[in-house]
Amino acid sequence: MLVFTKLLSFFWCSRKPWLYGLLSVVTAVFLCFGSLKPGYSFDWQDLIYRGVQILQLSTISDEQEVTLGQQINQQLIEGEQIKLYSNPRINAYLNQIGQRLASNSDRPELPYTFQVVDDKSINAFATMGGMVYIHTGLMVAADNEAELASVVAHEIGHIVGRHALEHMRQRALAEGLLSATGLDQETAVQIGVELALHLPNSRDDELEADQLGLANLIRTGYAPVAMVTFMEKLQQQGGATPTILSTHPATSDRILALQQAIDPDTADVGEGLNSQAYQKFIRSLL
Ligand code: ZN
């Protein structure tokens, strides 16, 4: 403050009142911010930046989302969190089903990637930017192509609904991970990996993904009944709860909502119900 006082007296002596006025404002601003405690000042700024960053994460562009999805994928593989199944025929088969469904989805412009995970547990998940993962265990548990397609369509539904992005935003906010400069890419990828492995799907997300998936399944030409038969089969089978049901809550509610949405007269109208044809496609898994 001593410097300011000296400057003030200098300009006052130079008889230029407008300069004095200007310096008064500068001094007042300096006093105002200078008197804040550093900690308080930081929190205040952090809060403002936090608001800006939440907005950024909610309005993320498709390109940014795709990049994030690819980085999460890389981390999942390089960190050995998942192991991809390397059979090209099985991968091509899943990809062909997935691309057909994706082109009939509500976000057809995304570059979708469908990957088979070498894991016997009955599970599937999606992250963001078109990344969908199906376990070999789920492919074996499905009785026909339409049942497998119903799960793929459901996972595409999560991407269409931007569910993982919303979970990421909520997690980052809850854990105070949004710094003054925003949520950095590395932290976003870490959260994305964690969510992919332990996705806390909400009931609303599941119901939405089911309805989006069902509409997609029908548009693509598959028999809609497959979505219900697959879910019922998993629910009724003995032993431990299949992973996909434990991470996808409220199974009976989901089945009921699907049954209400499907016209009984056309439930089994469509492709993909031939069990023998399906067994041929996936024989290397059996
Ligand atoms: Zn789901």
* Whole-number tally of structural domains: 2
Which molecules are bound in this entry?
zinc ion
- Outline: globular
Largest sheet: 3 strands, mixed
| Spans of at least 5 consecutive residues with low confidence | 1-42, 50-55
Reading side by side through the largest sheet, how are the strands ordered? 1-3-2
Strand content: under 5%
Overall structural class, as computed from helix and strand content, comes to mainly alpha
Instruction: Give the strand tally.
Output: 3
Distance between the termini: 80 Å
Number of helices: 14
Radius of gyration: 27 Å
- Bin the helical content: 55-70%
What is the N-to-C succession of helices and strands?
A: HHHHHEEEHHHHHHHHH
- The overall pLDDT, averaged over residues, is 83
Structural description of this entry:
By secondary structure, the protein is mostly helical. The chain folds into 2 domains: 1-52, no CATH class; 62-168 and 193-285, no CATH class. It contains 14 helices and 3 strands. It has a 3-stranded mixed sheet, sandwiched between helices. A hairpin with a 4-residue loop joins strand 2 and strand 3 (131-135). Helix 1 packs antiparallel against helix 2 (17-34) and helix 11 runs antiparallel to helix 13. Bound molecules: zinc ion (ZN). Zinc ion binds at residues 154, 158, 201, 206, 209, 248.
